Amino acid sequence: MPDVRFQRVAVVGVGLIGGSIGLALKARGVAAEVVGVGRSERSLGRMRDAGVVDLATLDLSEAARGADVVVACTPVGEVAAALARAAQACPAEALLTDAGSTKVQIVGDAIAALGAKAPQFVGAHPLAGDHRTGPESARADLFEGRVIVLTPTDETDPAALQRAHDFWSSLGAEVVETTPERHDRGLAATSHTPHVAAAALAAATPAETLDYAATGWADTTRVAAGDAALWRDILLQNRECVRDSLAALRARLEDYDKALADGDGPALERMLLEGKERRDALGS
To answer: What are the Prephenate/arogenate dehydrogenase domain coordinates in residue numbering (predicted)?
Structure first.
């Protein structure tokens, strides 16, 4: 029997993440209706063809009207404005949340834009994804067993925070809480700087050597295939934390360079082992 917890969920921006939210809600039977909001008729056609929503519309107000939950899955710079428009049409008690990869700026901008509705907003970031984009790549199981980070503030309504836990956990995810600042520091180290490193390595690889590229190069540079404009905005929003993380990476690279210049095998092995141990700690 379906366990319907939400009568209407409005998903603003239906790409990989938004589409996977729609598929997960539908597959688990926890939403009576999933409405997707797009920017163009072409985007509506793509989400319909992928079957990720029940209704597709260009009208954000129409989608938000009567919604229990509004999820902004837009580029990070558009989250606050999308939620502010939705807040004008949705019920007073509706949960407003997002899926952005940065939190300090999104949370600050959303609180400022939402005014009296700010207590209904709970910032969120699903630690799940793929370098592929678009609703065609969406998966109903994308969030299963993955972590969703919530970033409530002193202004957050406790009832809205509970609804956020209920919503995100209904997709099969493990839900945790932290501050926007701690989130951004952590993601700079584990996501944003690795993306820069992957892109830099890919760009530094001479085209004529790609015939020799195998799984090591492909695995290391996989995320460099992500949307450049999307990642530009993420990096700029979290630029201070990313710069700190890049400084730490730069220092490590200089240590490797010095060990190579000195022919220092023990130092190289020690650093490689340290990296292996840190990677092994994550598990497979």
So the answer is: 7-284
3-state secondary structure of 264: coil
The residue behind tokens 């428009």 is: 85
For the chain, what's the residue count? 284
Of 90, 262, 77, nearest in space to 160 by CA: 90
* pLDDT at res. 258: 98
pLDDT at site 255: 98
What total of structural domains would you count in the chain?
A: 2
**Residue 283 confidence (pLDDT):** 85
Instruction: Pick out the chain residues at pLDDT < 70.
Output: 1-2
The pLDDT value given to residue 129: 78
Q: What is the DSSP letter of 32?
A: E
| Residue of 52, 93, 67, 83 lying closest to 7 (CA atoms) | 67
Q: Structural domain of residue 239, as residue ranges?
A: 183-282
Structure tokens at 179: 């501050």
